[in-house]
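Below is how a single chain appears once it has passed through the pipeline. First comes the sequence as given, then the structure the pipeline wrote out for it. We keep one example in the README because the format questions we get most often are answered faster by looking than by reading.
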Amino acid sequence: MIFTTHATNLFNFDLLRRDQIWFTEKDYETSISDLFPLDSFPVRKGENIEKGYRNGRYGAVPFIKEIEKLKKQ
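Resulting structure:
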């Protein structure tokens, strides 16, 4: 089963394994999206994945820094 969500509370090793969590990141210059798994990053057992994601540790930053570029498109 494949599903997508914006619910960061699902970043929990009790629910999902590292190889089951994937991120996407869009390059706003080329409009190309990149897809990559969490297990491509060094993650310690018991690490707070949600906090790391919100801090941008894994890429796929959950907020838009360049909102003006999006408005022009």
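Residues 26 and 44 are 26 Å apart (CA to CA).

See the next section for the split statistics.
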